[in-house]
Every structure is written in structure tokens, then in C-alpha cells.
Prior knowledge:
The protein is an alpha/beta fold. The chain has 2 domains: 6-126, Response regulator (Rossmann fold), CATH 3.40.50; 129-160. The protein is built from 6 helices and 5 strands; from the N terminus they run E-H-E-H-E-H-E-H-E-H-H. The protein has helices at 15-26, 38-47, 64-74, 89-97, 110-145, 148-160, and strands at residues 6-11, 30-35, 52-56, 79-84, 102-105. It is elongated and about 60 Å long. The structure holds magnesium ion. Magnesium ion binds at residues 12-14, 56, 58-59.
Amino acid sequence: MKKEKINLLIVDDEEEFLNSITRSLELRDFNVVAVNRGEKAIEAAKNSSFDIALVDLKMPGISGEETLKLLKEQHKWMEVVILTGHGAVNSAVECTKSGAYSYLQKPCELNQLLEALKDAYKKKVMNRKKIEEKKINKLLNISISNSPREILRKLRELDQGD
Ligand SMILES: [Mg+2]
């Protein structure tokens, strides 16, 4: 069976790091889009759907914090993992309060990175499942207790609440 690939967006202003990490992850079941500015990450996320974003904290232009906020606002299913350099752990912790799934300190081992990304992916899949289950339960309830007209009305409501 073909293994499912994880769609990953990486944003980091250090080109060398970006290139090497992209190469390593592409060999390990990830589809990677790599960009070097927060602005470009926001743009890239508009054009395709990512499971996870790996976001550097310190970048010229919009910061990692800002990038995180915009990504979470615009793509509620995306999980974000923050990459932080030495001495910026406090801001990384702050980021988890703004919705980042986790953070990693640079330089980090590839294994550590892989684990963090796979955990974030599991979280994303679980969340999606939970919401879908809720929706199915609502649908079942609606279809049990209502007239056809009422069922249609409630289905429309449910769609809009997505
Ligand atoms: Mg940086």
C-alpha cells in the first residue's frame, strides 16, 4: 500500500538550513514547500493545503509569531510547530499559547524533528475526526426526530456552521 504523505510548509530565513531540512524530509514521506519569509508562507498556504507548518521564530519581515497567528486564523486545521534559536525559548512558549502545537530548539536532531512533526500530524487527524464524528451524530439526531422540511433546514444550518 502506498504510504500517505504529509503536506508540510517550512518557513525559515536560513537558506542552508532550509535546503538541508527540505531534502531530509522529502526522503521521509513529506511533501515539502519551503519558503524564506513569513509573507511567502501566508501566500503559499492560500494556494495549497498543508497539514503542518514548521515556522522559524526570528525572520526579517513578519515574525514567526505573526506568521503563526495568521496561519492559524486562516487555516484552522493546520498544526504549527515553532523552530527557535538559542535563548528564545520564552517566546516559543508564548507561541504555544497562540495555538502552536509545539516548539523545537535549533539546532535539533532530525529524529526529534520527525517525532514532533508526526505528533502534530496525529493531532491534526484526530481533531478532524472528532469534528466529523460530531457532525455525523448531529446528522443522525436530525434525521430521527424531524419532518423532511425541518431536516433540510437543519442540514443547511449545519453546513454553514462548518
Ligand atoms: Mg531565523
